[in-house]
C-alpha cells in the first residue's frame, strides 16, 4: 500500500492531461472546413511536408500581422489602450479577458469593439466572448494562445505572423515602422527566445508534475504539485525561453494541424509541466526538422529583470525609458496601469494623442476618423523602423546565424 501512495494523484494527472487535449480539440472542432480552407493541399495528409518557400506570401506584398491581446480582472481599459496603439487596418486582432474577469467587464469590451466605427468598418477586431480561465504558470495559457490562433487562421484571412501580447505590454514603434521592417525579411522566420540549457529548470520545472485547476474549475487558483516526479524525456529534446513570441503562419498552422502528431504529443506532456508557456512552443519548433532553421533567438521585447532575476520582471517606469528605446525592441513589458511612461511613449515614439490611434499613411489626420482607404497598403515609417531594422539585421547578418538555431 505504501508503494502505491502516488497512484491516485498520478491517475488524476493523466485524466487532467486528457481533459486539456480535449479542450484544445474542441476549440478547433467548431471549424469543420478547417483543412479545406487553409492551404488544404499542403497539410491535409500525414505524408504532406511543409515547404516554407511556397506557403508564405511573397515579400512584394505588405506583411500582415495577427495579434492576440489578453488580460485578466481589471485589464479591460488597458486592452483598449494597447489595441489602439497597435491598430492598423491590414492586421487582425483577437482580444481575450479571462474568466476571472466580471461578466460586466467582458461585455463592456465587446460593446466597445462593436461601437468603435473604425473597427466596424474594417472588421478586423474580434473578442473571444466565451472566455477561458487562465492559470499563471499553467498550460491553460498555452490552450488560450492556440485557441486564438485557430480563430485567426479560420476567420482572419491572409496574415504572415502571429504575435501574443498581454495587457501589460506596449509597443515602442508604430505599426508602419514594424510592417516596413518585416517586409524585407523571410516570412518563415519565427522570433522565439529559446535554449536547451535548462539549468535549474530541469529540476524545478521539467521533473515535477503539476495540475492546472483552470482545466476543471471555474474558480481561479494556483497550480499544485503531485507525486512522484518524472524523468526528463528521451523521445524529444526540451527547450525553454520566453512566453512572448512572433510565430510564422506556416508554424502556427503546423501547431494546429501537425501532420506527425508531435504538437499534440508535446501538448499532453506540457499539460503537467510548470510554466509550460515558456517551453511548449520552443520544444515544438526545435524538434521538427522543417522548422529548426527558421528560429531567431529573440522575443522582440524589452524586459527589465532584477539581479538576480525574480519570478516577475519589474514594472517599467520613466527611469527605464532610455534603455527601452536603446534596446531597439518593438515591444516592452511589464507596465502598470496608467503608468506615466506610457504617455511619454505615446507622445515621443508613437505620435499618439490620448485615446487616439497611432498616425500612419492610412490615418494621417489625428483629429478625425476619416480613413483614406487608398493609403492602407502604403507605409509611412519613422525612426522606429530604423531602430527595429538595426535589431533584426543584427541577428540575420551574424556570420554564425545559421549555426545558432535550437542550441
Identify the notable features of this structure and list them briefly.
globular; 3-stranded mixed β-sheet; 5-stranded mixed β-sheet; single chain
Structure report:
It is a single chain. The chain has 407 residues and is an alpha/beta fold. It has helices spanning 7-29, 34-37, 40-43, 52-55, 76-86, 103-115, 117-122, 140-155, 175-182, 201-206, 249-257, 262-270, 280-285, 289-292, 321-326, 340-350, 383-396, and strands at residues 65-71, 92-97, 125-127, 161-166, 170-171, 190-191, 194-195, 209-211, 224-226, 240-241, 246-248, 295-296, 301-303, 331-333. Helix 15 links the parallel strand 13 (301-303) and strand 14 (331-333). Helix 8 packs across helix 11 (249-257) and helix 9 (175-182) packs parallel to helix 17 (383-396). It is globular, with a radius of gyration of 21 Å. Mean pLDDT is 86; it is low at 27-54.
Amino acid at each position: 500500500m505504501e508503494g502505491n501512495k502516488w497512484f491516485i494523484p498520478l491517475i488524476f494527472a493523466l485524466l487532467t492531461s486528457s481533459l486539456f487535449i480535449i479542450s484544445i480539440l474542441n476549440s478547433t472542432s467548431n471549424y469543420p472546413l478547417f483543412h479545406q480552407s487553409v492551404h488544404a493541399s499542403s497539410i491535409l495528409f500525414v505524408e504532406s511536408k511543409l515547404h516554407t518557400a511556397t506557403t508564405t506570401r511573397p515579400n512584394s506584398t505588405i506583411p500582415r500581422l495577427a495579434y492576440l491581446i489578453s488580460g485578466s480582472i481589471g485589464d479591460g481599459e488597458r486592452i483598449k489602450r494597447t489595441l489602439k496603439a497597435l491598430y492598423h487596418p491590414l492586421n487582425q486582432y483577437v482580444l481575450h479577458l479571462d474568466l476571472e474577469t466580471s461578466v460586466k467587464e467582458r461585455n463592456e469590451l465587446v460593446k466597445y469593439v462593436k461601437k468603435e466605427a473604425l473597427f466596424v468598418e474594417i472588421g478586423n477586431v474580434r473578442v473571444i466572448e466565451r472566455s477561458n480561465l487562465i492559470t499563471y504558470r499553467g498550460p491553460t495559457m498555452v490552450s488560450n494562445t492556440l485557441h486564438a490562433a485557430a480563430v485567426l487562421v479560420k476567420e482572419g484571412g491572409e496574415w504572415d505572423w502571429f504575435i501574443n501580447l498581454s495587457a501589460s505590454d506596449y509597443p515602442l514603434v508604430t505599426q508602419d515602422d514594424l510592417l516596413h521592417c518585416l517586409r524585407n525579411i523571410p516570412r518563415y522566420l519565427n522570433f522565439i527566445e529559446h535554449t536547451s540549457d535548462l539549468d535549474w529548470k530541469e529540476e524545478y520545472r521539467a521533473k515535477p508534475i503539476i495540475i492546472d485547476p483552470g482545466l476543471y474549475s471555474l474558480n481561479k487558483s494556483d497550480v499544485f504539485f503531485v507525486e512522484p516526479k518524472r524523468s526528463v524525456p528521451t523521445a524529444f529534446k526540451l527547450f525553454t525561453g520566453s512566453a512572448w513570441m512572433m510565430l510564422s503562419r506556416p508554424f502556427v498552422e503546423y501547431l494546429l494541424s501537425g501532420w506527425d502528431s508531435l504538437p499534440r504529443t508535446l501538448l499532453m506532456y506540457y499539460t503537467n509541466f510548470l510554466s509550460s508557456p515558456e517551453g511548449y512552443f520552443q520544444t515544438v519548433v526545435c524538434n521538427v526538422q522543417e522548422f529548426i532553421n527558421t528560429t531567431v533567438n529573440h522575443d522582440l521585447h524589452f524586459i527589465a529583470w532584477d539581479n538576480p532575476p525574480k519570478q516577475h520582471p519589474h514594472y517599467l517606469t520613466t527611469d527605464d525609458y532610455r534603455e527601452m528605446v536603446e534596446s531597439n525592441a518593438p515591444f516592452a513589458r511589464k507596465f502598470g496601469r496608467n503608468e506615466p511612461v506610457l504617455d511619454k511613449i505615446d507622445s515621443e515614439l508613437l505620435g499618439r494623442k490620448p485615446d487616439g490611434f497611432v498616425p500612419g499613411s492610412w490615418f494621417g489626420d489625428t483629429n478625425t476618423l476619416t480613413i483614406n482607404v487608398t493609403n492602407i497598403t502604403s507605409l509611412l515609417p519613422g525612426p522606429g523602423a530604423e531602430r527595429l531594422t538595426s535589431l533584426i539585421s543584427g541577428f540575420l547578418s551574424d556570420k554564425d546565424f545559421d549555426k545558432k538555431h535550437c542550441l
